[in-house]
């Protein structure tokens, strides 16, 4: 195995529990929307199936399509409301930003331990998120200075990169780090994210099961699934601090990343 030299982290649900706030914001948006129109009720399963990991407006459009609703796309300047896809997306953004302010953001302790371990081992690290709130979340969580590269929804829009499940944002982060995709780890909790990692032919797609299900993550492209990144250490890179060689073989003759909980 070629040594893995970079770790590309999704943000919401991987580094920070902001995915929970996003889930609640989507529920506050779509539960009354569906009720008022006699549509099938919005559930958490809708979040995982139609919204999780996607750019905000794509999530709106995909969910609406699941209910047979088609709205004009509109533009990102639309006022928060219900007349266009973008208006609904902007309304959701206002809801979640209120939650960020009232409840705050703290990173997962296990994710910070894993981040510490891979950076201490010499890996390059980046954040790759569909969210345009990424700078605010990184600053609020105290992680803003931990990453060499951030490719978020703002960068994707500026550079015209398609969002997940397309691999382009992850490939762009690897390019900015100067690391081939085959030598990088993608860390994701969303089905669209693990699909992006698989489509980009990355060295390892690491799934974090925050509720979508380990089997579903594997089926969509994760090569390894854990419930918390604290279960892992730097051996996931195929090396460790005790002299593992660049083939990924440790002192027991096993591949370090295969020993983690799958």
Automatic annotation (TrEMBL):
Catalytic activity: beta-D-glucose 1-phosphate = beta-D-glucose 6-phosphate
Enzyme Commission no: 5.4.2.6
Entry keyword DNA damage: no
Keyword Metal-binding: yes
Segments of skewed composition (Basic and acidic residues): 252-262
Keywords noted in UniProt: Carbohydrate metabolism, Isomerase, Magnesium, Metal-binding, Phosphoprotein
Coiled coil: none
Highest taxon above the source species: Bacteria
Family (UniProt): Belongs to the HAD-like hydrolase superfamily. CbbY/CbbZ/Gph/YieH family.
Protein name in UniProt: Beta-phosphoglucomutase
Protein species of origin: Isoptericola cucumis
Upper classification of the organism: Bacteria, Bacillati, Actinomycetota, Actinomycetes, Micrococcales
